[in-house]
Amino acid sequence: MSEQTANQMDYELDGALIQEEPTTVVRCLSFQVDDLILFLNTDYIVEIVNDYPITPLPMIPSFIKGMINLRGQIFPVLDMRLCMDKPPVEYTSKTCIIRLNIDSVPLCIIVDSVCQVLDIDFQDIRPIPAKRQQKLLNGMIDLGNGNVIMSFDCNVLLERRY
């Protein structure tokens, strides 16, 4: 095998030098918040939990539902509906808590439901039209079957710009 770079690899197959192109396809988890289907890179996801008790905290913004204790570790829990100015709803059996690790900052988000894991080519992501612009979204992609899903920007959660 010859010299490697982070995004490109050359290798020899039956005497011919084969150059592998860098890939922009990333494994992502799709989930629902109100009427939107969103996705985020699975690299941010630590685990998904259902029906877990949340301890409310006084004098915090309404979108922070409280804290959870997962195996002795305490994590803040943010309700994505409220972060996106959507109306609150009662949690159901489909409601999930997604535990994230964003730049070494652990936190949890509540979503209406988890949909599926997809391989998404980040070169296919397009800007969101101005009318539909959301602070927590940074792009959209047409899945080819008429469904459009939005790219969820985890880093905005840390910047508190929502």
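Next protein, fold it too.
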Amino acid sequence: MNKKYHIQKSPFIVPTTDGKLIEEHFGKATDGNSKISIAHMIAPPGWSEPFQTPEFDEYTYIIRGKKQFIIAGEKVILEQGQSIKIEKNTRIQYANPFDQECEYLAICLPAFTMEATHREDK
């Protein structure tokens, strides 16, 4: 029988060196899907990434905590229950400069790949 659904019980844990937890539930690393990626993330206090200009739209929903975005030079802070869409080819930096973890979901269209992020050197 060919099921019309797939329950993800073992997401791909992306290796990181900055203390951030990344669990990709659907996407290139998990099931080879290049159209969309869905990841659950927990960013520790004081975490940040280099500036980047991704080739994908990114949607973020904050489950708990706060997350800082610098989007084309503008600082935006999202809190629990808020969400944002950042259009592809926009220069952005993601950070959690706050004193508590930030848990969130990230959805990328098309799917996230490191090559498509175009991260800058720190």
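About the second fold: The longest helix spans residues 28-31.
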